[in-house]
Write a structure and sequence with these properties.
Blueprint: H1 5-24, H2 29-45, E1 46-47, E2 61-62, H3 65-86, H4 89-105, H5 107-115
Helix pairs in contact: 1-2, 1-3, 1-4, 3-4, 3-5
Length: 118
């Protein structure tokens, strides 16, 4: 069986990384750039040991599974909210459906993250 969670999560995060600065740029270019930097930095810095094969030695800040889940939820929310702010309805609907599919596909990973003792 093909694991859809990984590509759906990546595509949803990509939507968040594009839609967020797109929606914020008319208000502040600095805020638009900072928003993407913060989203990417959070994913790079805060990692749950054992998630996606990450070894403890390669993790800058190890966090419990709930933090990783929160970061994914933050990205999914950004993808949905900012796509509606920045793009035409058809694109925002597609982004919302992608985020919903990702949310559903992530459930087994999230159960694993919450069950793991870090």
């Amino acid at each position: 069986m093909i694991r859809l969670a990984h590509p759906l999560r990546f595509l949803s995060m990509l939507v968040a990384w594009v839609a967020t600065p797109w929606a914020l740029a008319p208000y502040s270019v600095v805020l638009a750039v900072v928003s993407v930097v913060l989203m990417l930095a959070a994913l790079t810095l805060f990692v749950t040991p054992g998630d996606n094969g990450m070894e403890r030695e390669k993790i800058l800040v190890p966090v419990p599974g709930a933090v990783t889940i929160g970061l994914v939820l933050l990205h999914l929310a950004a993808a949905v909210v900012f796509s509606w702010m920045a793009w035409p309805a058809w694109a925002a609907v597609a982004a919302t459906l992608l985020a919903a599919a990702s949310l559903i596909a992530e459930q087994p990973r999230w159960r694993h993250l919450l069950a793991a003792r870090n």
